[in-house]
Design a protein that fits this description.
Strand order of the largest sheet of chain A: 1-2
Strand content of chain A: 5-15%
Strand content of chain B: under 5%
Shape of chain A: globular
Number of strands of chain B: 2
Largest sheet of chain A: 2 strands, antiparallel
Distance between the termini of chain B: 49 Å
Distance between the termini of chain A: 68 Å
Structural class of chain A: mainly alpha
Largest sheet of chain B: 2 strands, antiparallel
Radius of gyration of chain B: 21 Å
Number of helices of chain B: 13
Helix content of chain A: over 70%
Oligomer: heterodimer
Chain lengths: 465, 353
């Protein structure tokens, strides 16, 4: 029975993890590419330089391919709370449901409707109004992100609620919406979106440089991408670090786990790399590279700060919540944090080198950099996935920090068999979608642009008009 | 109590909006394999719903989110209980989303055929299952005393619920055909009018049967009087009869208004029959979920009510504006005469920005 219950919860977790990670492969590119395409169209509107129009249409297509899949997987996520996590849904519905409902009403509706207007409105709206529809759609995507992160942050750091008959009830919508955790998570996530947008754009430009197509045109796009990528990747390192400090306050266990810090320390060194030291029976790494005092600074803002260790936190939580294991999987959390942070630094390096090459007017000829930038397209994807693994697995065993355990939250009416079947169905579907998406992105990302004087496809006159 | 009723009504309105809007794009989807003469007309059909289907589907997302926020117990029980039905719907909807995006990404006829069928089957399948699932809320499924679903997938299939599914499919197909008659011209419009006439009688018969049966189920299984459920049911049947008259008299605008009204009244009949419960339990009627039992606390309802009061009028304005922008008829007067014309302009006017 216990084994079966574990299997059920693990299958439900695997399914939610698959859906979320998959969803978030498409969402941040939408968040980041949206404003970049809007800037391009604005540049065209202002200057009437045809090159900007061609770029708008080129990157706009990539933007839309991604948006469609984001919608589809977003619907799955919304349904999955109720389908697989009915106990959770009952417990949090009063609080968590509100930002979700508001997201749909205030943001998603705006986003979907105005994107439809933008896609089909090229020859039906004035250029000014048509440009405005894209900016409104972008506003919708950015608002949408806020409400979703308000909901998620409540699971990490519950605020503005009271418990009534074993269910959480909202007591202050202001506390919910201004949750410090949510605001920090929002900045972190939106910056991630801009990194996605600019790095993918840079990579595609470099791909075109390699193929020696429309060099002038893609230099314009590469410049825009670099103007965004350099400051944003740098800022993200600072913001990510500060976000970590906020997590320390709300979820000490997550931070201790991400450092594999078994004993409370003061001052604490930051482990750059280690072999072993990930289990209670083997707490000392057989090999490690450590920077003295850095962890103290990152977690507390002071080089002398104290960071609580896993063993002490485990004892504290046992006193507070009763017997049980309150530690997440240390190895997973330790490495997901590092994969995210190291790739973040690497991305800054790529952007900085790209900017330097651009400044020296060598960007279009540096073939080694073109290959690097194409490979770097994968980095934000891996970093964001690692970031969500850190956020969500680092919260375990809780589904809502300190209030409800994941093991108690799944749907009693859903059988293990059907969970396994639905997981298989979604994974198969996602794999299929992924293959098709990559194929389409390659086709469109690597294609030649239409000649400047050819009529743009969308602007083709209606047969009847 | 008042806010609970308000949200029950609002969720009914959201479902009504979903049936009204996604109803016609599902309908157009179902007609894709049968109605057009050639690939070019098929592209024009895609084009009639291209700018709006995404916004239409958002009504479902909002209905789901609103149910989660306002009636967490209803959301939890229905979504976990109707697991397989919703799984199927999700798969069908995902496949359908892709068909819009990807169909015109290649000129290959085989590629286009695959996505055309994906859209058609996704539209028909999702309509059928939504009909079955929503009718099952009223007909009753086994719930335990904690409100958890204790039945199986088979419990969703009764004569009544299957009829509901078929009725929804037919009403949507009819609604899609009347939509095409106001959005297209020339040969395609003519073919759409013929399809509307062909579907009209079947739709009115099956849907009226379903509406009448709904009133009977409400009385039998949900402890309701004949009135008020009979009111929206009769109006719904009346709207369909009017729609038949309008399609035969070639009053396309009125016909579309009548099928739109019918789609909304199907939802209204179901929700009127359901109230004051949100999910009927059968055989243990006492375990049914009620509006007051499943609702969120007053404060949450107050918060989302204020937000909805601000946002909904704005949504109505920009949705209305969208339909205004895309009001003109698509397709050409004589396109049917060209045998298998290359899908040049009409096809690429899709979302290939």
């Amino acid at each position: 029975m216990g084994f079966l219950a574990d299997t059920t919860v693990n299958l439900a977790r695997a399914q939610f993890a698959t859906t979320s990670i998959y969803h978030f492969l498409f969402v941040p590119l939408t968040l980041g590419l949206g404003p970049l395409v809007a800037v391009m169209q604005t540049a065209w509107y202002r200057t009437r330089n045809e090159q900007w129009l061609r770029l708008t249409k080129f990157f706009g297509t990539l933007f839309l391919i991604n948006f469609a899949i984001g919608v589809a997987t977003g619907l799955v996520q919304e349904f999955e709370f109720g389908m697989n996590w009915s106990v959770y849904s009952r417990f949090v519905g009063n609080v968590f449901g509100a930002p979700l409902a508001v997201e749909g009403l205030a943001a998603f509706m705006l986003e979907a409707t105005f994107l439809g207007l933008w896609i089909f409105g090229w020859d039906r709206l004035s250029p000014r109004l048509h440009l405005a529809t894209l900016w409104v759609a972008v506003l919708g995507t950015w608002m949408s992100g806020y409400f979703i992160l308000v909901a998620n942050s409540w699971m990490q750091h519950p605020v503005g609620y009271k418990l009534v008959n074993g269910e959480a009830q909202l007591t202050s919508v202001w506390a919910l919406m201004s949750n410090g955790f949510a605001l920090r998570a929002y900045v972190h996530t939106m910056l991630a979106g801009l990194i996605f947008g600019s790095i993918v754009m840079l990579g595609i430009c470099c791909w075109q440089f390699l193929r020696r197509q429309d060099i002038d045109l893609f230099l314009k796009a590469a410049k825009l991408a670099l103007i965004v990528a350099v400051p944003v990747t740098l800022l993200q390192l600072v913001v990510g670090n500060r976000f970590g400090a906020a997590v320390t306050g709300a979820q000490s266990m997550k931070i201790a786990a991400s450092e594999a810090q078994w004993d409370t320390c003061q001052p604490c060194g930051f482990s750059l790399f280690q072999i072993g030291g990930f289990t209670a029976s083997d707490p000392t790494p057989s090999f490690s590279i450590t920077v003295p005092r850095l962890l103290s600074y990152m977690a507390t803002g002071s080089f002398d700060g104290q960071v609580q260790g896993l063993n002490e936190l485990q004892k504290q939580e046992q006193r507070q919540y009763g017997r049980g294991n309150y530690m997440p999987s240390i190895r997973t959390i330790y490495w997901s944090m590092r994969v995210m942070a190291y790739l973040g630094m690497l991305l800054f390096l790529v952007a900085a080198v790209g900017a330097w090459l651009y400044w020296r007017k060598k960007l279009e000829r540096a073939r080694w950099f073109h290959r690097t930038a194409i490979v770097a397209i994968a980095f934000p994807y891996i970093a964001a996935t690692a970031g969500w693994i850190l956020t969500e697995m680092g919260r375990q065993p809780w589904i809502v920090q300190g209030l409800l355990k994941t093991a108690d939250a799944s749907s009693p009416s859903v059988s293990t068999t059907w969970l396994a079947i639905s997981l298989t169905v979604f994974v198969t579907l996602y794999l299929l979608l992924f293959v098709l998406d990559v194929w389409l992105m390659r086709r469109f990302g690597g294609r030649e642009l239409e000649a400047p004087d050819a009529p743009a496809p969308v602007a083709a006159p209606e047969p009847a008009a | 109590m008042d806010l609970q009723i308000l949200w029950f009504v609002l969720i009914a309105v959201l479902w009504g909006g979903y049936f009204l809007l996604e109803g016609f794009d599902f309908g157009v989807g179902m007609l894709l394999p049968f109605l057009p003469r050639n690939e070019r007309q098929r592209s024009t059909m895609f084009e009639t719903i291209g700018p709006v289907w995404d916004g239409n589907e958002v009504w479902l997302v909002i209905a789901g989110g609103a149910t989660f926020a306002a009636f967490p117990d209803w959301y939890a029980t229905m979504f976990s209980g109707f697991y397989i039905a919703l799984l199927l719907i999700l798969v069908l909807l995902i496949v359908r989303v892709l068909s819009f995006e990807w169909r015109e990404k290649s000129e290959s006829p085989a590629w286009r055929r695959v996505w055309m069928w994906a859209n058609a089957l996704g539209s028909a399948g999702a309509s059928l299952i939504w009909g079955i699932a929503l009718a099952s809320l009223l007909h009753g499924v086994p719930l335990d005393s904690k409100g958890d679903f204790v039945g199986t997938f088979a419990d969703l299939f009764t004569g009544y619920s299957v009829l509901a599914g078929v009725a929804v499919v037919l009403v949507f197909a009819f609604h899609g055909a009347t939509y095409l008659t106001i959005r297209t011209q020339g040969d395609l419009c003519e073919r759409a009018a013929r399809a509307a006439r062909g579907l009209s009688v079947a739709a009115v018969l099956v849907a009226s049967g379903f509406l009448a049966w709904t009133v009977a189920v409400a009385v039998d299984r949900n402890d309701k009087d004949v009135f008020p459920p009979v009111l929206p049911a009769a109006l719904g049947a009346g709207a369909l009869v009017l729609a038949v008259a309008f399609v035969y008299r070639r009053r396309s605008g009125l016909a579309f208004a009548a099928t739109a009204l019918a789609a909304v009244l199907v939802v209204a009949t179901l929700f009127t029959s359901l109230y004051p419960r949100v999910m009927v339990s059968s055989p243990d009627f006492a375990n049914s979920l009620t509006v007051s039992g499943a609702a969120s606390a007053h404060y949450t309802l107050k918060v989302i009510s204020i937000i909805a009061a601000i946002v909904l009028p704005v949504i109505l304005v920009y949705t209305g504006w969208t339909y205004h922008v895309f009001r003109e008829r698509l397709g050409s007067e004589d396109e049917g005469a060209e045998p298998e014309a290359p899908p040049a302009a009409a096809a690429s006017a899709g979302p290939s920005v």
